[in-house]
Amino acid sequence: MSMRVPSIRTKPRLRRTWRCKKGIEKQVPALTQWLATGRRKTSVARVFLRHGSGNIVVNGRPFDKYFATESSRLLCKQALQATETSDKFDVLVLANGGGTAGQAGAVRLGIARALCEFNLELRGKLKSLGYLTRDPREHERKKYGQKGARKRFQFSKR
Questions:
Q1: DSSP characters for 114-136?
Q2: Domains of the chain with bracketed CATH
Q3: pTM, to two decimals
Q4: What pLDDT sits at residue 158?
């Protein structure tokens, strides 16, 4: 199995050239960020990790407003707290599909993968805690002739 080599930018690249009023072009540095994708059930979360003060924004809304339950908030922050980097990064998350519990699991996996992109030395700690493992459990489909995926209609002997 081949190891993925992280793409780390050591110095900021110049991304765009803006024209000012007098025709002078000004170079704007690109943001240094690390991107990773997390999945859980039918949810997909794209996670952007940037240097900052610990703000987390999910789909343009504050983290506390998006995830209503405390358990889903704790689940999302587990990877940051385990590596003691919760106050060093701003996290921007674009999540879609599934429900809030699936999205919270997807965010945790995405943050853990992004931290590995940032620093490969954190991989051992995250892997031992199980944060880099994608949960394979999916929703089982309903079968015809049954009430649900596993539940049957009531059996009548006569």
A1: HHHHH-GGGHHHHHHHTTTS---
A2: 35-129 (3.30.230.10)
A3: 0.77
A4: 86
